[in-house]
Amino acid sequence: MSLVALLAIFVSTQLPLVQLTMTGGWSPADPKEEGVQRVAEFAVMDNNKRSNSMNHDKLIEVVTASRQVVSGIKYRLQIKIGQTNCRKNHGSEFTSEHLAACEVPENNPRKTCDVEIWEQKWKSFVQVLKYDCRVDGANSSPGDSGSVPSGAPDVIQLDSMRQSKNNWN
To answer: Pick from 113, 108, 129, 39: which is nearest to 78 by CA?
Structure first.
């Protein structure tokens, strides 16, 4: 047997032992891991501060998770959230401890969100880079809170305005 053939056999038997993720590339993470749960909760709380919803959203579960080592760790998560029965009171600080006591009623809509978070733990730095949600069961695109039904008044009005403008030219 030639040296090349022996080398090919050796390499083919050892390939499964080689880690297939690139250094600096994305690798799977356990959705139940404490660090993943922590940044997911942070992202939901951050979005609660920014959204104009009347009630707070709450993390239901982390569906998938991956991480990338950069100057810190970047997380890509797919999460499920639900609207709670807790009203926003913009005059007071709302903490994760308060949110833990909030219920997500069964009839409230659920959302699936694609989230990206960058954390530098040694600096106590966390930043949400992306937070795109869609209502479960709705035909919507990322960033939407739901889809606009075809034939909705705003859509019809916009279409008629475009047609009128085209008639002027």
So the answer is: 113
Domains in the chain, ordered, with CATH? 31-147 (3.10.450.10)
Q: DSSP character for 148? A: P
The Cβ of residue 167 has, within 10 Å, a number of other Cβ atoms equal to 7
d(CA 87, CA 36): 26
Structure tokens at 70: 């950069």
Instruction: For 5-53, write each residue's pLDDT tens digit.
Output: 555 555 455 444 444 446 689 999 999 999 999 999 999 999 999 999 9
Query: Which residues neighbour 33 within 8 Å (Cβ) at sequence distance 6 or greater?
Result: 65
Which of 32, 84, 26, 82 is CA-nearest to residue 62?
32
The model carries a pTM of 0.67
Side by side, the strands of the sheet bearing 55-70 are 26-28, 55-70, 72-87, 110-120, 125-135
**Can you tell me the distance from the alpha carbon of 111 to that of 36, in angstroms, rounded to the nearest whole number?**
19
**CA separation for the pair 152, 53 (Å, rounded):** 22
